[in-house]
Amino acid sequence: MGEYKSHHYVPICYLANFGIDGNKDRKSRVFFYCVDGNFFSISSVEKRPTANNFYDSTVFQDEKTIEHLFNEIEGVLAELLRKLFQQIIINPLFRPDNCITLSEEDRGQLSFQTAMMIVRTRAFRNNYCQAYTTIKQSFPFADIPDYSKKDFQRIHTNEIIDFGVANFYSNLFDDCHCRIVINHTNTPFITSDNPAIKIIHDNNSLNQNISPVSEIVSHFMPLNPYIGIEFCHKSIVKKDMIYFDIFNELIINFYNNMIIENATQFLFSNQNLKDMNLIGEKNDKT
Q1: Euclidean distance between CA atoms 41 and 33, whole angstroms
Q2: Mind spelling out the 3-state secondary structure of 46-90?
Q3: Residue of 7, 56, 61, 132 with fewest CB within 10 Å of its CB?
Q4: pTM listed for this prediction
Q5: 27 and 265 in contact (C-beta within 8 Å)?
């Protein structure tokens, strides 16, 4: 695939917001932790997270199609993030209201772009692998064909371009209220190669398969070290695009731990992750 061989599965325009020296677009550098290799380092946002031939180009007549598709989607994402950061006021004392106003189009894009951040990742592809393994184990004598990594790659790529699951999540988020999570602590939000995550707000249900439409479920995504968004059931959050200010570091640690728990290969931050002492739990689980 030549220059189109290395595929990003987290947008550069998103990850650059976690740059060590702020957002410098493709020149941004981030601290990262590699889960599989158990090591810390620094990387350009252009280099991680990527994978050679992550998407199956054989489903297209032109191998450049998948990159062109994501370039178009990410262009809209970059503009949406720019608008959000311009509107969001960190200091509560300077806010004219307790929420921000987005156009109907931008609010719809916020839902859709978050949905795409879920669907295009390695974590989402792993769902297919896990479901297949469960079926094979549950029906050992059934005539179920053997699937390879290439098969899951094809299924995942077709799902992305079909937008079926993306539209499901987008519609779900349209029906939720989104709150703007403002981090006022000294501990930054971190992110990962699976940045938009499902959070279950009920300790008695943590090990159960809870529907994403349940009122005890929210979906959180950090946008930069100080700002995140969280889609919540309307019975929990009564107003859309409302500010949610956090001054308690324990709550920020909760969100960061959820990011760590849902990461597949990489964690990213504008601060040295090794010094933040957040990785022990992930190490124990791997």
Answers
A1: 7
A2: CCCCEEECCCCHHHCCCCCHHHHHHHHHHHHHHHHHHHHHHHCCC
A3: 61
A4: 0.89
A5: no
